[in-house]
Design a protein that fits this description.
alpha/beta, Rossmann fold, four-stranded parallel sheet
Length: 102
């Protein structure tokens, strides 16, 4: 099983590439959506790492994948500018998936 990266910048992609993680750079919602669809279709990809900026472009599709599919696991990571709201994203995800507001 492999990791796959969807990033908004080349620096993150190159850093992950050094660690052996392949990925794509996406700047629009269509590009991110296509990359997610490709990752879901690839049975070898178990974990998708996605930067915060890319995740914000396709929140509905990400939540749909997280709630309805067993694979891949989608993990939002900070981009090169640092974390801007990971705890808020996790809280929103919990609230939407099980109905508990933290």
């Amino acid at each position: 099983m492999k990791f796959f990266l969807i990033s908004d910048n080349i620096d993150t992609k190159m850093g992950m590439r050094i660690a052996g993680i392949e990925g794509v750079v996406a700047h629009t919602a269509d590009e991110v959506s296509k990359a997610l669809s490709d990752a879901v279709a690839d049975k070898n990809i178990a974990v998708v790492l996605i930067t915060e900026i890319c995740a914000k472009l396709c929140t509905d599709k990400i939540y749909d994948i997280k709630l309805n599919l067993r694979r891949p696991l989608i993990v939002e990571i900070p981009d090169r500018h640092g974390s801007k709201g990971i705890s808020e994203a996790i809280s929103r995800y919990i609230e939407e998936s099980i109905g508990i507001k933290l």
